[in-house]
Specification:
Layout lengths: L62
């Protein structure tokens, strides 16, 4: 059973797309993060934790 779609014409798309990030693929795996371009982001300074380990928090059990 084959489904055939009617011919509707062509769809033109703009080819100029802004690039927010550089390419994320490395030509080889360097093995060291300081050699990678772009540099990896592994820590967010604005992150607020859940405070489960603080004594003033109601979830603290220690």
């Amino acid at each position: 059973m084959k489904f055939y779609y009617p011919y509707l014409g062509y769809k033109e798309q703009c080819k100029r797309i802004p690039i927010a990030f550089p390419p994320q693929h490395q030509p080889v795996q360097p093995g060291m993060e300081y050699l990678m371009l772009p540099r990896p982001i592994f820590d967010n300074p604005d992150y607020i934790g859940s405070c489960k380990l603080e004594k003033g928090c109601p979830n603290y059990r220690g």
